[in-house]
Amino acid sequence: MSAVRAALQRRRPRAEGAGAWLAAGCVALSLLLLGALLLLIAVRGLGHFWPASVSLVELDDGRRLAGRAVRELPLPDGEGRERLYFTGNRGLDGQVWHWLPVARIVAESRPRDLVVLERRRWGDFIGRLVAVEPAPDAVAAGAGNGATAWAQLEARLAALERLREARDTLQRETIRPLARRLEADPGDGEARRALAAATARAARLRAAMDETILVLESVDGRRLRQPLDEVLAARRPNALSTWEKLAAWMQGVWRFLSEGPSAANSAGGVWPAIFGTVLMVLVMSLLVTPFGVLAAFYLNEVAHQGRLTRLVRIAVRNLAGVPSIVYGVFGLGVFVYGLGGTLDEWFFSDALPTPTFGTGGLLWASLTLALLTLPVVIVASEEGLARIPDHQREGALALGATRLEMLGRVVLPMAVPAMLTGVILAIARAAGEVVPLMLVGVAKLAPQIPVDGDFPFLHLDRKFMHLGYHIYGAAFHGDDVQAAMPLVFATALLLVLVILVLNLTAIFLRHHVSTRHAAPSRR
Amino acid sequence: MNLPSEAPPSRTRWRHRRDRLATGLIAAGGIGVILAVLAIGVFLVVEVVPALAGGGLAVERLHATLTPLAWGTLKAAFWALLFALPLALGAAMHSALFMSPRLRTRLKPALELMEALPGVVIGFVAGLVLAPWVERHLAVAALLLVTLPLGALLAGALWRWLPVALRRCLPLAWAGLWLVPWLVLLGWGAVALAPPLEGLLFGGDLRAWLDAELGLHYAARNALIVGLAMGFAVLPSVYALAEEALAGVPSGLTEGAQALGATRWQALWRVVLPAAAPGLLAAVMIGAGRAVGETLIVLLASGNTALMSLSPLEGMRSLAASIAIELPEAAPGSPDYHLLLLAALALFAFTFLVNTLAELVRTRLRHRYHRLGGAP
User: Fold this and answer.
1) Strand A64-74 vs strand A55-59: parallel, antiparallel, or unpaired?
2) Contacts of B149 in chain A (CB under 8 A)
3) Which residues, given as ranges, of chain A have pLDDT below 50?
4) What pLDDT does A403 receive?
5) Pick the CATH number of B59-124+219-372 from 3.90.1150.10, 1.10.3720.10, 1.10.510.10, 3.40.50.2300
6) Above 0.90 for ipTM, yes or no?
């Protein structure tokens, strides 16, 4: 027996033992978790825009429902399964979700004439299009011909889009400048007349937009009149080919990126949030870069390298590990209530007690995040400075350069990639940071973006929207979390993508630095 | 470029004056920035201490409000570390000593990216996707917790019996990668196996069984979910520091042990781990600091209920989450405001102390490695 065992063991490699495999399993499990999370976000986030087919379901009691199958689960008692349908039509049914036992479904089909309308109020409509009113002369009204009505609807939607554009142009280029001129000089008769004419034209445009009414019918036969102006998009998912669906998908992605939110943040796009995030991060990096670099230069080049400097260095490094909520508390206490309150008393006392700078806003949020990311920039820049060989500095000084010239012409150019890495890491950190913003100036829904055509163009006192906070708000404070989920996934995907790209840039730069530094020291 | 000798003396004087001025400005700016960064602690102390000393905060009230929060914070951190430490330390051991260098240079950035994932995304996935799923499939989740670690062991046992050619294709150095599909396969098996097992052992419903037999009430958002999510967030930073400590151990020590006949695992366990123990401790401390301060994950994945219970299946509320929710509503100067600032001060003091300690340990360790003659 032992001989057999020995023979077997001789042929097998010597065991590393269980521990080595457990350790390998830890790596695999970590990678698996990371991959699963990224995959989940990517699939759910991108899948949201795919125009899913709509099924017409008939139940054994004769009820008919049209909706998108979302998921299927076993019934709690273990007998059979039930399926969740998103049926839309909040205005008609009062609810948009229906759980149906699979056993009770008699027939399921996918008629091509089912339309899905995205509306500004009441969410989605799923059903049939009966007619478009007022009907053009050629076609009798209410003929019930779905295909003709659909063609008309598409034409009308395109026309409506043109009208909206015309109205926006009119608003932007004629009415607002005229109004500003009148504000400056109320006696300007010419401007007054022009403004009246433009307003009348805008009113005509608005009337033309309100004109068209859609006659809709849900699958169980209830009719509904829907003004076309409220409709954001219309499609017939069952009639689309794969290519058309792909086109619709891309259009959906574009609208998500370029439009504002609707239906209490549970639908629509995230453009204001993207804008707010980018603007806040820009202001923050403008603040953090010079100060972080300055502090790094001081610590590494100017300060006496003694015990105190070492302690300060450790302290700065540790501040990167202090929870972000503490920075938020600091921002609220010092920037918002302290500085902001004082500014209000000095400059905006006529607006008090309504605070101008004494409440959260873009400036305070940027400052707080700048403080939060300052240690990151300082540490990265210092590492870059420390890596520059001393003989470079000594060579410059020996050639007669003053310290300033040495720092500016020799040290700084060599340290730039490291500093850039630090700034990018700071931006990546700031873009994902939500907690301090909750205290110092983010808003769930900001009516105006902080940049516009009115002086001083950039409104640092305004509240702004943020991608991360958008996720938090839509996922945890919405009325219908289930309906907001796809959008939250899409937003999360966007945020993660931005941060991944920033981090990859930083990693690439750091690699670039370490390969570049070998060269000058050898030369 | 002017050579200094050609430059007129006034110009040289101007250059030197400019230099002195700029140096002074850099020094002033640098000191200013550093003071601004360090002002956080000062601000909190200045706001809180007078209120405490002046009796603005009643002690009973402090006790009643802060105790459940502190408890919740520690509970969340405990479960997060319980989940993250074995994974992070195991991964660090593997990548420092067994992994192929090529895979290692790829893996480190991947885990750095993991560290950069925003807390709001992790918290949202944990609270709205993972928590309902685990609630519905509690047995599957429990079985997965058992299968996945055992799966790695099983892989090791099976590996020894593979034909040589296949063994060459699947070396231990790359196990971190090729174990992933194996674990996916096992996970799928666990998902398929769980319902019959649940029927056999727990009468078909693990939640009802837990409630009836052990008296544990299962809340959908509980400490385990928080631990899992926060463990995920803490894992990369612990991994990075532990890996640095392990990889920094002078290679002479390992080689010596192996020359004396130890396997790589024995060398790791008996020689490298004791040498790197302070560094690992520092990594754990940094992880604890992060877990204590993490706000959104706790806020989103826990029930946000200020409960004091030992049960891992119930929710909790943490200091950081309370600050985030309540501070915007508290009027500045009111007792509530000071109470929340006190909570922030506690968080700040704890993390700052822990981080400083960890940093000191790491510096000490680097000196020790240097003395032992290894790479710094």
Assistant:
1) antiparallel
2) 22, 25, 29
3) 138-143, 518-523
4) 83
5) 1.10.3720.10
6) no
